[in-house]
Known about the structure:
Blueprint: H1 4-17, H2 20-25, E1 29-30, E2 41-51, E3 59-70, H3 76-89, E4 99-112, E5 119-131
Parallel strand pairs: 1-2
Antiparallel strand pairs: 2-3, 3-5, 4-5
Amino acid sequence: MTGAIEAVQRSLVAALQAHPPLVTAIDAIYDGPPPRAHFPYIALATGSAADWSLKDRSGRRLSLALTVHDNGNSAARMHHVMGLIEQALDSGLNDPEDWQIVTFIFRRSRIVRDAISPWTGLIEYRADVLQDFVI
């Protein structure tokens, strides 16, 4: 059995990769910040998990974060890519192996940049998942 975060992140990446407008707008989706990448790109941030169990089933409340990085002169392309991410995830995620996604909710997003760094966008989601019940 896979861990809840790993399983749901795989489902999240599959949903992003299945959205053609997003795939053509970015260079790649990485599992964490890459050492060298072409802009714009998406990196999965480390998520957190809390207990969300029921009497008879294990469950987790997951906090999932995606970061988008871009070196454009303005935030316009960043806003576009982040909008495409939200479109790709609007209908939710497919249940990953060993887990049932009960809720998948957009929490917040923001874009920041300092004087010497590329643009960074953060999008956070919450997923409540239950372990598949096996008899």
